[in-house]
Design goal:
The complex is a heterodimer. Chain A is mostly beta strands. Helix content of chain A is 0%, strand content 45%. In chain A, strands 1, 3, 4, 7, 8 and 9 form a 6-stranded mixed beta sheet that branches. A 3-stranded antiparallel beta sheet of chain A has the order 2-6-5, with no helix packed on it. Chain A is globular, with a radius of gyration of 13 Å. By secondary structure, chain B is an all-beta fold. Helix content of chain B is 0%, strand content 54%. Chain B contains no helices and 12 strands. In chain B, a hairpin with a 5-residue loop joins strand 5 and strand 6. Chain B is globular and about 45 Å long. The chains are: A mainly beta, B mainly beta. At the A-B interface, strand 3, strand 7 and strand 8 of A face strand 5 of B.
């Protein structure tokens, strides 16, 4: 199972919006409504920010939003803040009850 | 509160096996599945497999099939991940993470993670 494709890095200034893409295939991202996004600060465990493509868990800022079009999912962070600087990973359900992660994207807040 | 507490760091020689534990508390262990994810230094998250804590059924990533075994002890609310035939490329932080299920089925995302266990493979 190949990893989902994410940009290696994105950057933005405080207050701006950024979008991270997550490209898969019809066997994963495009075939199911089970895409999730995780934030991972350096040296820490990941934390879910979005699940089922666009749902936010309780306690996650509404500055984080998710969407999907075809085989590509996206995470958008609006009103960028310094605390958002971290690595971000997408994940998708795929065939036979397995999961796959993306390659990860390093977000830098300028 | 929900906690997943993993066993401590391990150093192993190539060819050996390692068994990492993940003790759950704060919820009904058998209502969830436990997944295992690893992360080599500076690398991406990599999904390894999971166990249905209720019936013990397992599913593994093709990459690790034959080398990984995930088990659980419901009386101890603990899941285990054993990886055999270790090589240097298996040096990584190994995480357990839970997935919820209700009458509609599994929710395919991780809402809680363990703190991670560093496994170092070196001769």
């Amino acid at each position: 199972q190949s990893a989902l494709t994410q940009p290696a890095s994105v950057s933005g200034s405080p207050g701006q919006s950024i979008t991270i893409s997550c490209a898969g295939t019809s066997r994963d991202v495009g075939g199911y409504h089970y895409v999730s996004w995780y934030q991972q600060p350096p040296g820490k465990a990941p934390q879910v920010m979005i699940y089922d493509v666009s749902n936010r868990p309780a306690g996650v800022s509404n500055r984080f939003s998710g969407s999907k079009s075809g085989n590509t999912a996206s995470l958008t962070i609006s009103g960028l803040q310094a605390e958002d600087e971290a690595d971000y990973y997408c994940s998708s359900y795929t065939t036979s009850s397995t999961l796959v992660f993306g390659g990860g994207t390093k977000l830098t807040v300028l | 509160q929900v906690q997943l507490v993993q066993s401590g760091a391990e150093v192993k020689k190539p060819g050996a096996s390692v068994k990492v534990s993940c003790k759950a508390s704060g919820y009904t262990f058998t209502t969830y599945a436990m997944h295992w994810v690893r992360q080599a230094p500076g690398q991406r998250l990599e999904w390894m497999g999971w166990i249905n804590a209720d019936n013990g059924n397992t599913i593994y990533s093709q990459k690790f099939q034959g080398r990984v075994t995930i088990t659980r002890d419901t009386s101890a609310s603990t899941a285990y991940m054993e990886l055999s035939s270790l090589r240097s490329e298996d040096t990584a932080v190994y995480y357990c993470a839970r997935v919820y299920r209700d009458g509609s089925g599994w929710y395919w995302y991780f809402d809680y993670w363990g703190q991670g266990t560093l496994v170092t493979v070196s001769s």
